[in-house]
# Entry
Amino acid sequence: MAGLFDLSGRTALVTGSARGIGYSLIEGLAAAGASVIVNGRRQEAVEAAVKKLQDKGYRTRGAVFDVADETAVAAAFAAFDRDGVEIGILVNNAGIQFRKPMVELELKDWQRVLDTNLTAAFIVGREAARRMIQRGYGGKIINIASLTSEAARATVAPYTAAKGGIRMLTRSMAAEWGQFDIQANAVGPGYILTEMNTALIENLEFDAWVKSSNPSGRWGKPEELAGTVVYLASEASSYVNGQVIYVDGGWLSVL
Ligand code: NDP
# Structure
């Protein structure tokens, strides 16, 4: 069985992977044998993550670009082409949060969240899929969804709209690219202990709500997402396409 999950010889790009969930995913993919490419907007953060992975003996490089910038994404993939780097696994993980009641929300903030959390998955996914199709031996795309792909909460409308969109973009990718042996799936994390949630973790009321609302009775840890992503990146999921797998401690199963 172990061979089914072996990613040796494959190259994985994880967007937004210098910290948080993205970093845990990239470490998991590297531990499963993949060569990995760390991405983020800040050179120093990307370099630090690359060094950390290299110190652990993993084959790693960095690619600094903004996932929402179509020109920058095209340039990054052109550089991969020049260097003979073939992305066989793409994880669209980069994301931002912005909290404000909708009646006070400015269009520019709505747009910024939609651009980063939804449109970027299309832009980066398109570049990766074009090459997977041309090479002719398939590939894996994993989009990071959220509990808000299924249910809404007040003050996070653009995030919720984007993550709902991720669910259907994933299905669109499966519908169009399944014929090329590309499997596109999504992983929907519950509330996970990362920098994105710093304010929520420090809010005692919110912390208590998280702990009482899901059957596991606790927050998730970033490394608890890696196994599902490795599965979706591997041969073990060769007939799994268009799915969203929630890694949420059982949150969506209960009232
Ligand atoms: P963090 O804020 O800890 O990390 C986000 C990462 O994305 C950073 O490395 C950041 O790097 C990068 N990033 C942000 N914008 C861009 C951009 N435009 N281009 C390239 N990189 C970018 O967030 P998490 O690790 O918590 O979240 C990761 C993903 O998981 C997101 O999609 C999020 O929506 C999702 N998620 C998180 C949950 C949680 O509870 N934490 C729950 C459900 C889903 P930099 O700023 O240096 O560019």
About this structure: The pocket of NDP is lined by residues 15-16, 18-22, 39-42, 45, 66-68, 93-96, 116, 144, 146, 189, 191-192, 194-197 (CB under 6 Å). The beta strands are 11-14, 35-40, 60-64, 89-92, 139-144, 182-189, 244-247.
